[in-house]
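Justification of resources, computational component.

The compute hours requested in this renewal are based largely on the per-chain cost of generating structure records like the one below. Each record pairs the submitted sequence with a full structure-token output. That output is archived, and it is also reused by downstream analysis tasks.
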Amino acid sequence: MSAPRVVVIGGGLAGIAAALDCADAGAQVTLVEVRRRLGGAAYSFEREGMRLDNGQHVFLRCCTAYRALLARFGSERHVHVQERLEIPVMSPGRATVVLRRGTLPPPLHLAGALARYPHLRPAQRWSAALAARALAALDPNDPELDRRTLGDWLSDLGQNEHSLAALWDLIALPTLNLPAAEASLALGAFVFQTGLLASADAGDIGFHVGTLADVIGDPAETALLDAGVEYRLGWRAGHVRRVGGGFEVGRGGGPGRGDSEAEGPGEADFDDGGGEDGLSAEAIVVALPHGRAAGLIEALLPAQAQAMRGLGSSPIVNLHVVFDRVVCEEPFAAGVDTPVQYLFDRSAAAGAPAGCQYLAVSLSGAEREMQMSVEELRARYLPAIEALPPRARAAHVERFLATREHAATFRAAPGTAALRPGPDTGVPGLALAGTWTATGWPATLESAVISGHAAARTVLSTVMGQAVHA
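The structure output for this chain reads:
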């Protein structure tokens, strides 16, 4: 009896994880990806002799599924996890302070950092500690929590607008891609509990020391080949149909438009619609952004497709600034009382010119910035960047580039939980994967990998009658 055929649609982390699991279980796997590279929303590109990442994708020590996938890729040498959580915080006209966890068990491991945090008054620090204690007692699976925002709940516990911006949004914005005032309380509770309160070291931050191509894209190709997965790049899936006891994936025509945009010239990144016709398989994993996934499954599952579209989207804008000298000693820093949310020194990974420093600025929940031109972004953000590390004011800017993720994540607002589907669609052999599925996590690298494992278990239970433990 021949091995069952599985087609995985989408070459991001979710699709890669699903394809590897299915191949490991003995299936014949073909992965198709509309872009001419793997990695999905985590990728690198070249500009003027530098290798830049489209965004700054950090992770936590507790992201065990993602870290295990990197171990399989053999790319762990390109990442670094802090020995203990440290977040440098910059503010205009003030010295840099560091939020650092201690060695006591949670939640006391954060008590010292909060007690000394100068961006809150003593009464605000005490109030924040009480709010954190109350947050730890919530059940993120309680449907009531997904009916209100994290900000409203924190306000009830005495957290004012300044406290939200100076403390809570340091975590909410990069993990939920929304400020606390707009984000679901259920997802917010999960993030703070899992990343900061479950164990002392859970929130230690992991960084990609190499480029995303070094960490994910290039080694993923090798891992897929080693597992016997056939992957086809520049291949756009146009439809999914039931045919007999299996499925047909038809190839779409016409040029594709991506969810990402880097201002400036570059190679076409997407499918040209040419080439062979469709693929047939006993099982399909749809591992695409939820908008595209909804279009593919709509003919089979119209109600579910409509619900998926209701997830909406939240954008991320990244600014790439090259100075003619080193202006910042911190490898990364958060911003308070500034429009700069987070900045990262990416000089070594990108191959910045000798003597120069390349700082990447990540702006989450960036709906306003999505509408701004590069010139407008430069006018607003360059003075703000220069107001943080003092040496930046005397430096010359060699390059200023913006990249935009139009639909970087689903919108993690109240009501999200009811719209996120599980991997099982109810159609035997058809599964869903992606950060937007019901993993419990917000749209993170960890969520992507978890969803891929779950989708693989779902289709394998149908086509091979076996369970997969990932």
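The chain is about 30% helix and 25% strand. The chain has three domains: 5-36+234-312+412-463, 41-99+201-209+314-409, 102-200.
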